[in-house]
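Quick question about two entries, pasted in order.
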Amino acid sequence: MALIFGAGLVTLVSCPQPSPPSSGSDFTSISGQVMDASLDESLKLTTGAWTGGAGSVYGTDDAGQKTKLGDLNANGSFTASLPVPSAAALKKVTVPETSSGCTGKITVSNPNAQISGLDVSVDANQDGTIAPITLTTDDQVNKTTGTGTATITWATGALVYADQAVNTSGNLACTADKTFTVSLNTNINYVKGWNKATLIMKSTVEYDSFEMVAQSTAVTMTSGTLPTNNWVLTSAVGIDLAGGMSQQSFSGKTLKNFAESFLHSNRN
């Protein structure tokens, strides 16, 4: 999974030109803490001490090549070495098409640059894909009338390898239908080598008699940091990271389907 783009303000704003990236990255390993996690019916994320035991940490690049990155300690702590992706995993950076109900533009500074993401997983008494994720909610829907708004804000981190330095910047505003709007804002600086990236999605849904009548979503994509050092099993929060945010298919329709699935899978 190579996260490239993001989104941000509902109203389009000018995006400053990113500063030139450095010549390369010395980021070749990552340490983290795997946590137990659960998501209740109100979409509250609860984390606790890891109970999955000791095991191994693996990484799978965008060509499907799986490599052991390090050991998982019994308490959930790990340090993982980051390998250079296979040549088959590297793909040129693409930008979202504006024909799918979107206006605005995202530009790529280096059209020759290629990237690959790394899906991190653990093999222990509990196993599966892990990611650094945070999530907060603000549910203002009246439990009797079913009227009001519900807002969810979540952030997820990604590890992205670039074979050359590349910047992406710009804004998009998308409308999937009359009730769904989304704004995209990205300002990403990838250096040659491994990079950290964070995607933040804030989505507000308006309900009337428990039926969704409108939804607005703002997503921001940045580079340089992860949202948290705590990693959780993505299955625990019901997110298919690999299927929803590929740079190859980031359109208004795709994001609409992803956001609706995330917001409603645990509410109904």
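Here is the second entry:
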Amino acid sequence: MGSVRGPHDASPSVPVSLLGRLARTRPALVLPLQDTVLLTAALVLSLLFRYDGAVPSDAWAGLLSFVPLAIAVFVGVNAAAGVYGHLWRYASVVEARRVLVAGGAATLIMVAIDLVPRFVPLTVALVSGLVATMFVGLARFQTRLVSFRRRSEQAEADTGMRVLVIGAGRTGAELIRQMQTHGHTGLLPVAVLDNDARTWGRLLSGVRVLGGLSELPRLLAELDVHQIVLADPETPTAVVERIAGLADDSGVVLRVLPGGDELVRSGLRLQDVRDLRIDDLLGREPVGTDLVRIASMLQGRRVLVTGAGGSIGSEICRQVARCAPERLVLLDHDETHLHDALATLPPTAVPELVDIRDAERLNRAFARHRPDVVFHAAAHKHVPMLETAPSEAVMTNVVGTGNVVAAAAAVDVPSLVLISTDKAVRPSSVMGASKSVAEDLVLTSARNSGRAWCGVRFGNVLGSRGSVIPTFSRQIQAGGPVTVTDARMTRYFMTIPEAVQLVLQAAAMSRGGELFMLEMGQPVSIIDLAHRMIRLSGRRPGTDVEIRISGTRPGEKLHEELSIPEEGARPTEHPSVLRLDPVLPSDRALAARVDLLRRLADAEDGAGVRAALLERNEAAEVAPQPNFVVPMGPLSPDSPVEPAAAGMAPLGPLHGQAFDDHRGTSPLITAAQSAGELTTMNGNRA
């Protein structure tokens, strides 16, 4: 590093301005003088070699005439090429290429000058130019080598951060080079390990490959290693866990490179090497997406994202922004989350502080922006919370989705994507059942209108607000206990960026009416996840941090599903995206169900909402309230009722057992029953 000195640091007998001029002119004087000496030496050696040491007197005379011309050419070309304008202690391949190009050009000019008259043999002109170029390169890079050695010694003396690199590929070599170049980081690579036996004993950027991973326990002790850097982002999870365990046992920090997609975006930088995270241990393979196809769907289009301040919505906005949309509209009812999402986006992003439950204001927002693509991510999602507030689940997840569907249909949005959840499959919770209705609303409208609207269903995402990962992290930081509801519980997991990549991929593949399911891999044991996270924090499960079984909460399942057999999961052109054939209700049944749910929610009849949401077996229909229109879009040609003619929207199904359990306690259901308006699908009174 260069020193920074003020005027008071200079000798009082020498003017500061003179010191500055000398500092600036030193390379301009010393380096050309150095090149003059090197070229002269090269000419003399070449001449001696040409005549086997017995140089005739006329050849010496010719050389004396040629030297001034050669020096003028060599130094002049180097100056024109910018060879004298570099800090050689930080020289790289760029500077080496510059020296070679300048030296080659100078050599050709020297040969051309020597053609007529012939000062020295042409071979002397040619060889001396090449030798002088080699001398100059060695001289310049000697400065860099000395500087590097000093920085390395200083780094070891200052911090002693001795690093063992795992991975002898190109990535490992680049990391070592950056550690060596940036001595101020205090990282000193001392050894490399790789399971490829062909690399053993070789030098990687000057650091020797000492064997395979089996040597790790021994080398951690013998080399006094303080940090391990895993230089291969695609290392299998089992291997990462083994390395993490050895590092933990030895009190060594394990750091890793970011995932493949992140590396592609930012390039390999030393500052991107990060601590190990729990998602590095969940066995997810890097996702490949058709970026060209996704960009063609979004570039130059008007894109609107509901729930844009949430975990999924904000990541959708970030990834969409990279595809250069004409306009990106962030719609959310939470000003803080909306503000935070905007902070990560270009200034062209447009905020809309709107609640999807407010149909009038939502319609105005859609009319203002007239989006080409809508990602509907707004939803209430926390299962236990919604068990205590079922009416709120309906108003946002059902009525709010209906409002989005109606607003999108009103401005003829060509493409709409619903973000759904595995909890919508055979739902046992209010949240899951409300999202199942949301799926029906979007996909039924797509079926009737022919628009390219679809739904995308996936499991848990890592790190979303209020999810298990941040909860466990908070409990571990507090010293425990870590609470697991049931030792048998499993969940599917995916990182937020990965989920959003696949959502965009599914949207690009949609032709309308599809329900896509993301391939989530194998379910993860929640208690095993707790063990891993505790170990990752450097503590021991059960000893340093207690794991407590708290019992399942209302609405929770032990194991989630991503589809039911009737939906017939089929592959698509992307291996991580499956297509389902959704089992949809009739327009009449769906509209009836939405209407009943809204009336129950408006009445704050939580028990009635829960019963109406979680109905499963035989179906019933409730007569409609007059003049209430559910925002469903056009009915299909075979619909049994025309809303315009009837003056009302058809109402939908209640399934038997949940309905039977609740009909005596809900005023709305009891009133419908007493009036004879409530009938089963076969026409019998309920």
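Reply: The chain has 23 helices and 25 strands. Residues 18-150 form one domain. Hope that helps.
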